[in-house]
Amino acid sequence: MRREWGDKRFNALNYHLRQKFGTKVFKVALDAGFTCPNRDGSKGVGGCAFCSPAGSGDFAGDRSLDVRTQFRQMKEMMHKKWPHAQYIAYFQAFTNTYAPAPVLRELYYSILEDDGLVGISIATRPDCLPEDTLNLLEELNQQTYLWLELGLQTIHRSTAQAMNLGYGWADFVGSLEGLRRRGIRVCPHIILGLPGEDYRMMMETAQALASLDIQGIKIHLLHVMRDTRLEAMYRQGQFELLTREEYVRLVVDILEILPPDLVIHRLTGDSPRETLIGPEWSLKKWEVLNSIDAELLRRDSWQGKYYQGGGNG
Hints:
- This protein is an alpha/beta fold.
- The protein is built from ten helices and nine strands.
- It has helices spanning about 15-20, 65-80, 100-110, 130-145, 155-160, 170-180, 200-210, 230-235, 245-255, 285-300, and strands at about 25-30, 85-90, 115-125, 145-155, 185-190, 215-220, 225, 265, 275-280.
- The strands form two sheets. A seven-stranded parallel beta sheet has the order 1-2-3-4-5-6-8, with helices on both faces. Strands 7-9 form a two-stranded antiparallel sheet.
- Helix 3 (about 100-110) packs parallel to helix 4 (about 130-145) and helix 7 (about 200-210) runs parallel beside helix 9 (about 245-255).
- The longest helix is centred in the N-terminal third of the chain and has 15 residues, at about 65-80.
- It is globular.
């Protein structure tokens, strides 16, 4: 039986937030000044092969400012267009649990005092969630609407090693179990088009997640950005980028096997025009999203159409 969520055939974050809070809710991307164990030498140097010098926070606030100032500045800009909107503080750049729990406590709680804030979203790696940090997140989850965005990218060890991730599937599953025992919503990130991965491998990553107790997902298109390890690999001809048609078909194939109640946080990614090497078609984000909608309509399909059941909660 066909399902729809508002005007979409998938459970978009925008729809989910409107249903929960009764109004438009924006995510305000922040740069809290973190680094990453894959950059400071504790796990490695140079970061993940695809990660930008800004730690994938290219659209986040100015890290020279404290997070409350960043939040207020960006909120004020959005508020001019959406005067009745509410906001989620999104700790986006680098690894946002990579500090001692007392430091994290002060940081997270400082932002809760701002007017209009209804929740917090924290992006991190699965190898940066020690027990005291998990306990802090459990406490925070009781104070506000919380999402923990957990980088996975792929379930495949060969790809993880080639991309210099510094963590793997076992790290992800262990962190997920610790988060879900505490009732924390988890949104894994995956990347489509990673070097060496074919259609089957990408679908295996999606299928593995569809069987787990996750509450959301972010699907990213692989971007090649300047000053990354991936740029050198691309210029040496080590891999090809997905076409828009390939990407759209793949995203819809994945949507069809995901649980219907899973919140879809993202279906493609952003990259600043001035730092993007490719694919250039990704700059036309709304055309990509409209193509995904059109492909769902063409197939008369929807999120969860072929979902086989599993651990989603």
